[in-house]
Structures
1.
Amino acid sequence: MDLLTRVLFTLLGLFIILNWGLLMSALMRKLTAKVARRIGIRWYQPWINLVKLYSNRNSIEHGVMFQLGPVFRLLGGVGLVMFMPLIYGSELFSNFSFAGDLVVILYIKFFGMLGMALGAGEGGHPYSAMGVSRGLSQVTTVELPFTLAVIALAVQYNTLSLHEIVAAQQGGITNWTLFTNPVATLAALLSMLGIFMHSPFDLVRAPNEIPIGPPTEYHSSYLGILRTNAPILHVIEAVLYMNLFFGGATSWPMLIVKTFLIYFVSIFVGVVFPRFKIEQSVTWFLRVPLILGIVAIILIL
Amino acid sequence: MVEPIYIVASGLGIAFLLGLTKKAGRDVPGTLMLLTLTLMTFISFQWLWSIGFADYAPHYTYTAGFRPPFSINLKMGEMEAFFTAIVNLIGLLGGLYLWERLKKQGVNSMIVYMLLFVGLNVMIMTRDLFNLFVFLEVSSIAIAGLVLLQRDNKALSAGFKYLIAASIISGLLLVGLIFIYQYAGSLYIDDIIDANLTAVKGGMVAVFLILIAVALELKPFPANGWALDLYEGAHPGLAALVSAAFASAMVFVLHKLLPVAGGAWQNMFATLGGLTFIGSNLLGIKQSNARRLLGYSSVGQIGLLVMVVGLSQYLGEKLTLIAYGILISHYLAKAGLFWLTGIINQDNIRNWSILRRKPFMLAIFGIFVFALIGFPPFPSFFAKWELIMQLSAGSGFVWVIVILLGSFLEGVYLFRWLGYALKLEHQELPAYKIPWNKILPVAIAGIGLFILGYFATPIATGAGNLNFLPLAAVVVIFFLDFLPARIKNILAIATLAYYGYMIMPGLYESEGLRFIFSIIFIIGGILTLLAGFAYKGKRKGFYPAVLLMYVGLGQLLTADTMLQFFFAWELMTIGSYILIIRGKYSITHGYSYMLFSVGGAYLMLAGFGLAYAGSGIPGLDALANISSLATWASILIAIGFMTKTATLGVHIWLPGAHAEAESDVSPMVSAILLKAGVFGLVLLFIGMGAESAADHPLIYILGWLGALTALIGNLSAVFQEDAKRLLAYSSIGQLGYILFAFAIMTHVGWLAGFTYTINHFMYKAVLFLIIGGIVLRLNTHYMYEMGGLIKRMPYSFIAVLIGIVALAGMPPLSGFAGKWLFYNAGIERGWYFQGGVVFFSGIIAFLYLYRLIHSVFLGQLKDRHRMVKEISPWFLIPAYTLIMGIMVFSANPEWVLKPFGKVTAQYFPGSPLIWEGDGTAIGQLGYWNGTQVMVIVMGLFVLITLWLIMLNRNAKKVKQFNIVYAAERPERPETTHMSYNLFAGYNRALGFMVAPGITGIWNWISDSIQELADQIRRIYNGNGQTYIIHVLTYVVIVYLITTGGF
């Protein structure tokens, strides 16, 4: 198919993901609120947030890097969408995934993270830097069990191409990696808790603790871009997990349901557990998740 | 042709006549003495020339007209000519040196001086045993006399101890001689050899006594306390004579007399020599008195020569050349060093920094030190190489270990001394004069070493057509050192460019592999030299060193034999050592670097020896044809290369060396020099069989080692406060990746290795250049003292940003190519755990990269930096050139990866990367299209940025300080810039992994050796009677061991 069609369908996919992401975040907050016996926000609140942020007239900036921070962040999120095949079997919604395989996807994620880190640092706030240092520290050990699980998968399916991994999981629920390689899936799911950065691994932004850092320094359309990116990123990371471990999606409703359930796992854990400190969270991933990852590798040796 | 007897006659004659000239003042006798010495030297050299080059037969002089054994027979053969020539030359030069002193002490001292040389000449030439004894006595007494004439306490006690020892030794010799005459019936040495006295028990004792006396005169360890006191107490000019002339003559005497024992005791003497070599050099480590240190070194070198004489069974026809090479280097360097001691008159080696007042003296000192240890281009290098080769071929591995260990220990104290001379303060030391008669012998010695080095090349196997022209260029630059730095920089760049022009086309045609490395060495060299334009002044000593390093690197690529490779390796080491130690605080780091380099080089030499022994080929293809002990050869050579790439275990020198080096040196050593080790490892792996060696246990170990190095290197970098140290540890980590990639031993793995190599070169050079420029501007290394520099140095920021994105391996930049390849390679090979460790290290890299860029460029600007300027454009230009290279590679990875693929396919033909027309690379497992990724990412970036700009048209720029936190407005940037201990939590969690364990181990080894040296040297308690007990005990023990009593 020609370039224009591909771009248009990619944008369509992006649009769907954005909206679903906004809705999903609202639903999750409502669920969390119910657990805490509150009512929670309205389901359309995230849209209103975005509208408000983008329509702010005033904004201040601290320099070029400061402005580029959200750009890199959004680039990370949208980039992930670009290279991710969304719907299995659909050429329309496989975006630009022919340009790169799983390795590209894994590393594009870091691009956004680093860019945000730079932008936060340029804000001039020491607390932003503190948050970034915590975030980066956590990421190192979070990714380790996930990588081991990915290696185990790559060997199991003998490919690093997401298309082929999803294809190998078709034909019934028992073909999902969840059932053919439960150890790797479990290791990856535990990593996922760190990737989504919900409690207990939310020290990075420490939402109720330090009201400073990117959420405060960034404002109006900068914050708007960040708030646009967050749902995209959440959905697309869930899509990645879906493609790797839960059989992919052959239609949009299935994608929506599966990503909701995957994301729900981290929320589910989060409502029950308090926050870890950085040294605790860093070493947590080096215990059970790492052992599971090592076992996953041993099983394929 | 003058009869050799005239050497003796003129010397003796003038000695007597001098007594008559006492009334003529001091100058006349002095001149007469020197003229006679000139005559003696001339005669010897005439014979040396005739016999050596004009094919004369050896000449025999029969005194009194009778044949031996009824008369004394003097022989002037090739060896005698050589030894008399060098002895007389030292006599002449030494006489010149001691001119003032001899005149002051009077004609008597001149007489004694002449007698010494007469005695030495006869000792060398005579074939009669008793004659030998007589003139040995003459020489010893002459030395004692010269020492005692000095009249200060130390000299008197030293001379006295020497006399006692010499008497005992002469006594042993005489008793032995008497019994030899009894058993052999003749005093003619040839007759005695024929008599085969060792068959008879009594004869054996007699022969033993003779030989042990000769051995004792050679000052063996531990029976040499008197000798060391002599070296310490005597005037340096005399010590030079003892060390150079007397010891040389005695070595020849040993060689002359050893056949009397009929070849039975060769190993014994080799052992004694080896023991002396190691023992003396070990004890030298704790020495801080220059003369005593030189004494230990002399004794050690003579021990080495004794060992060579004793090992003649291994060395065959190469014996004389090897011995000459080592002897000449020792003789010239030792005499030169003793003479230097006399000129500058400083006894403590720490005070030798005074040499820096006259660069020429410092250079000569450096020449002597390097010649002693056996670096190229001096004769000792070729001699030692050949010695190791021949010993290995004969399976004399124990001897190889002894020689290399002793040489290393010698290097320990010599380089410490050189470091002191190069770096310590000297302002408070008194001035010294350099009279022409003292500096001329020193200069002759120094220049002689170079010239003889050039002529010594044929000694070594595999010298082939060793190219000295590049080295000549270095010497030229040395003589142009008075020019301003900018002009020298232009010359250096031009020389390097010309050198590249000469060698690169040839490498491109023949060997893509070497061409890849030549791009790094030559182009990288030119770019890093560009940064040198930022320096004003003269930069004395920088340019010869930097050219030496690059010339060495270039010659590494054009080498086809192992010798040429090793030659280039050592040249590169000298150059890089001088460059590294130029840093302000680099004295310990340069020393550490040199010790690890020398240790690694010796292991490599041993490995090359095994390779030569196992394959019989001197060329580099020997590595592929080793039939026996191949694994040992590979292990030794691998460790040798790993000391250069700073693999875990031998990495402790790198952080200090790279961090404290000057701003333009750090990119050179970190981005370029480390790749020499990589090149070596690549050659080794090819030699081990490339694809067929993939399952070799050594390769498996190296793979794990690479992964662990990556982990520890990167993790250590995270906790550094010093920006350059951070980058240095990062280099350790990245080199770990490279080792791991090459150890994978598949096509894709090697492709990953080459990609990492060239990427690391580019981005590390960029990072070090920019950070170096910043360090120059701000005058601090610590990141917490920087901050907010993005406002003042935007171009530096962009360069560093690109550098860190490339290092982190994020798409779309070129670093990702390496990561993608490594993922595919690791999984394909089945090294999942190692791959996991390496991946983990890769993520850890994000931490220190962020730390670097945030602490330096982001955050708050310090008040004192508010007006600081952008870094020197001379640092930006090479950095941006490299960045263009990175961008080109990133946008079109197939332009680089396809040629690399062709090179790799020569060694790993199986499972290459397949390239589709649109630029997609397809591996066994995955696929990737670098150009498309770049286009997509750049496209998105542009679109999103445009959108942002559109949204924020009215954004108002505010000052960096316009922030609020904790309900206050900050006032001082120091309290607002978060940088110190940025990863405190991470340190609490994982900091235990980078506790300095390996440094502790090396420190323990170093301390133990020093403690051992300290304990053993206490046997030299200064008491002459104790020394005699040592001598006698030594005789008894050696006798019992030799004759099988033990």
Note: Residues 153-184 of chain B form the longest helix (32 residues).
2.
Amino acid sequence: MNAEINGQLLWPSATRTNKLSGPSELHRRPACGGYRSQKNGSGRSLTLQNFPLGKRPAFDKISTMESSAPVAAAFAAETIGLTKRYPLTWKRKVLVALDHLDLLIKPGEVFGLLGPNGSGKSTTIKLLLGLIVPSEGEARVFGLPPDSIEARRRVGFLPENPYFYGFLNGDETLRFYGKLCGVNGPRLDQRIEELIDLVNLQNGRERPLRSYSKGMLQRIGLAQALIHDPDLLFLDEPTAGVDPLGSAQIRDLILKLKKMGKTVIFSSHLLEQVQEVADRVAIFSLGKKVLEGSLDSLLTENKGTQINLPADLSAEQQQRVLAAIGQAGIGASEGDIRFTRPHLSLEQLYLRTVQGKIGSTTQEPDRK
Amino acid sequence: MISALYRILTIGRNTLTEAVRQKVLNVLLIFSIVLVGCSVLVSQLATPGLDSAGLFDAQIKFVKDFGCGAIGLFGFFIALLSTAQLIPQELHNRTIYTILAKPVRRSEFLLGKFLGVVLLLALCVALMSLAFAATLYWQELQGLQATKAAYTADPHWQSNPVVVNLYNHDVASIHQQTRDPQIIEAILLIFAKLIMTSAIALLISTFATSSIFTIVTTFMIYLIGHMEGTARAFWLANGAHVSLWQSGLVGFVSLLIPDMNSFTIVDEILAGNKVPWSHAFNLLGYADVYLIVLLAVSIVIFDYREI
Amino acid sequence: MEIPASTVSTCLPLAHRLRRAALVALLLGLWAPAKIVWEQRIAHEQDVLRYGGAPMTLHLRDQLGQGLTIGVLSGMRSVVADFVWLSVTTSWMTEDWWQMGAEINLCTALQPRAPVFWDMGGWHLAWNASIAAMEDHTQPNPLRRLKASRFWIDRGRDIYLRGIENNPTNWQLWRDTALLYDQRLKDFRTAAYYYQKASEQPNAPIYLERFSAIMYNKVHANDDLSAYVAWKALWERLTPEERQMKQHEGDRIEKEIRGLEQKLSIPKEKRVFPN
């Protein structure tokens, strides 16, 4: 699978602070006081009028989002006070899997759902897919109820585990799901060929899925999620159990999909990967959304400046830099300033090694 | 509408493929075909050491009863086992998530799965019926051979018109029993009964939490269904003479449990008695409407089920 | 996050659950009365077709045992009856006549519309059992042997008559009864009656139509008048074409009538064959 931008295999650098993205205002919601499911006369939809605005972050591909058009058409996915409770009859308790979630995801975004196990990420995805019914609140996908046929025509889903039929081979699987999505005839044949190439599954297309490895199952899962060219993709732990090469390929695919204007909502435990692809994230804990915003705004430290130089500095040169900083009147003492070497991430090192970019594997970067 | 039917058909074919690729069902089918064939042996047991020309009636009765009985019994097991694990397996393996994430309604999913079972049952009944037809044909050959042997003992038999008449009468009697078009009627009624059993199992599986529960409950309803006629007659006849509890119980059975015993009219057909097609259509119509009701209730329950 | 159940009302909206229950109740409520009516109609049609079988009473259940009861209850009545019939054959071979009689009763109770059980059951009793009783020299008194033999003949006749009640259009059972009166009881007049009834049933072989008249030839006092009436009635029933057909044996009928007209000195103007 080849996904390239500007001729090189894509991975952003480990830190994002040197990346200049436009005005990065924190797009924070008021904690716990935002949107309850307020049923007014018409009942349901959230309009721009009652949406507390700060400055909105800039997105590459989004043109005129700010308008007085109804929000229902402007969001790929939205939830208003979305709640899901499960009865635990024997314990005489109720499990609150999701507690009054308010979320707005714009078309073309890559949105990450983060959180520990049991924090409500999968529940959110299932509610947005219409697989389960909310106890309270509302969810919408492109302004439509998530369990409607029209909404699901525009949605693709890669489940966390391979929830496919083991007795079907790769071709049959794609054909089956394609037909269910209304793709058939020569168009389906063409689409299957395209997707088999995209996910690099030529070897496995004649074999039953029960003989597939985990990586192959993820790939066929992606292929079936894309069979009908959906506008919105839900990826539940897309790189779980996949080797680093495979998960890099999946990451590249996500970026490619973003370039094509698709919206991607995915959940993951692998924070570094989320950092590399997501535009915005939400962090969940115990069924509640604790934090939400663009990565730039969330990860940028409020205070401080980092300067990267391509050359090594000797001790004497470091002293001269310190003196210059002292003269600039910034008000930082010597102890506050540190000189360190840039670090690769372990994943970057692994990929470079595996893909033969570094000849020797014995070299270790210095650490100070 | 067309696209909905297409989706139902797609799921149905997938279900049939899954069932056909399962070894358990293949074994059951092979066993049933063998048993249908063995009905011939059982018929020999019934009339040991006797002149088979004269006792063809008894032998053919055995072959018909055992053959159709095997179709009914094994068809029942196939219907029950394949339907009972239809929904639980999808829920357990979570393959239902992937399907319902596609533009497929829950009702279409359920109907598609049921269609798959119907196609499977049709295939199994067709194969077993072929085996049954083969045994009937074999029995006919045996009967004709024995009859001929009995008459040709007298070398001048063909010159006596009375004897020839008797011979023709015997041959016609054999053909009448082995080539009775009413056998098709019987097999259709057996098939209808199997479909109803399957629909009951589907209904229970829409709210049951395990396959075992579905299997046991469906089997009990199947048995109680054979006594529903008695319960209904009792309930309609005895208005005020029984306690509310008894009346309620019998009433529940009469109002909700299907009358499975009405399908044992198949025994009459196989015994050679005339059962008009109008009656068969009446029964088939009853089964069809009951099927629609069961499927509608299944769809309602499944639509609201947490998955 | 788990919270006590009392602090929240529901996990699913109430309207959601009520809607489901209401729909199910509506569907079943509409269907239930229609179901009863339809089933009654089917049951009535099946009564008319004279489909039946003894109801599953405790008595029948005791005779069948548990396994076979389940078989009957699950709609395998005919197969169960066939299984029981296997033991009839066994009892016949072991000459356990009382056991055989009980099993014949059971089979015919399970499937009264299967003529083969009545046909062969009656044969087993009226011929096999009765002849065995006649030749049973463990009983030294010949009169007692005759009485025992007659007992089994009567049992066989009961089976045939009940078979006819359940299968009134089955020519074989009428024929079997006639044969019993003819061969076992030597009551040729009654045999003639049953042969006549047999010949009137659908699909009856043609030769039976003559047997009734032939029986009168065998009457002890040679009841020529009854025989003449029977032969004449047969001749008049046949069409001119049928009289020419070999299977109806027109020549023989004519010969019998001529002989009897002569013997009884029927006036020429009243004869069938005046010449």
Note: Chain A has a mean pLDDT of 74.
